[in-house]
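Section 3.1: Structural characterization of target chains.
Under the original work plan, the team committed to producing a structural model for every single-chain target entering the pipeline before any wet-lab resources were allocated. The record below documents one such target. The sequence was received from the expression subgroup and is listed exactly as submitted; it comprises 424 residues.
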Amino acid sequence: MEARLAIVGGGPAGMMAAIRAAETLSDGSRVVLFDKNDRLGRKIYLTGKGRCNLTNRRTWEEFAPHIHPNQGFLKQAFRAFSNEDLICFFEEELHVPTVTLQGQRVYPASLVAGDVARALERRVRELGVDVRGGTTIRSLADLASYGAVIIATGGKSYPVTGSTGDGYRFAEEAGHTVTPLFPSETALLPRNYDPGLPGLEMKNVGLHLYVDRTLVESDQGDFNFTDDGLESGIAYHLSRRAVWALVNGQRVDIVLDLKPALTEEQLANRVLRSAGQTDSPNARQNLLNPRGISGLKNPPLHQAPTRQFAPKALKALSLMPEALINPFLRAHPGLTAEGLPAALKAWSFQITDYKGYERAVVTAGGVSLKEIVPKTMASRFRPGLYFCGEVLDLDGDTGGYNLQIAFSTGALAGTHAATYLLTH
């Protein structure tokens, strides 16, 4: 009997590996795909808020900075199966048309994540892959009869989908190092979180991340205030470094800039005009009274209290959504017209907690990249063993980067694991 390939995990990386392995072997029956769930790709149904952000269309030079912690590791897999290759694969091989939306994000044209999961599973079955759903592999010893094995079990995010970290245990059985794991792309909870904030959507704002009072990262775009804190969009982007800092006992502050397109002086002039005051240099100087947040390096500016600012007056300025006014004023007691420009540019939140794997989009950390061959996804320790997808110490920002990692590494692992069977 010819040797067979076992793939553990039927998510995006596992299904892509199965497809490429079956095509390489020209005999899908030699590929056995195990998954805990009866239905493959269960986590795909949840991605992109149910729309499935397949990839991002940026060039590698623009794509790479969104990969952590080692963008160079992904380069071989990306070039072997790039974002443009992925789009062609879905449109030409799976007959799933795509659409490119804001930020170069690519989705199925239907904006239905289930269309992606069903198309992948359909292709897997068309190729004759032996799919064994509802099956739990407990140890690498369970796969001793197979000629090659691919671990594509995902991370620990969304454990209800079956992602419970089994692949890390398998890696350690094979002698691999698993770097520390932590949730990424998750909600960040501020201290004394104002109950008036959840439900508000922030558009075109800036966020600055301070760790131990030092500015370490900034971004501009959209995010939401939810029951769990600052979530989605640019908040997710900053969450990786924020969570890691919290895990290591460091102080974390997020500073919100409500008007990133305007300088503090421009805001001061706007306040002066609205108040009917002269636009003189002296008047502007009175509004621009910088008082740094204690201890911050390159600190944002803060207010200097004189005459208290009223909600009605702030509403008249149209500087923020009306629903944000009361939480904003509660966060800045005694706010004055003089202090308003600085407060708009630097609303500070001390982050004290974050949501765990039950809500995190991605698991950061994983099988050490130093122990994996980037050209093949093969283990450097055990011949015939391969890893792909989220189980690796490789993750990306929100925006299609994580699914591209899964598809690129899965395609490479599937092709080379099948080649290993053919040549050994």
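Residues 282-306 have pLDDT under 50 and may be disordered.
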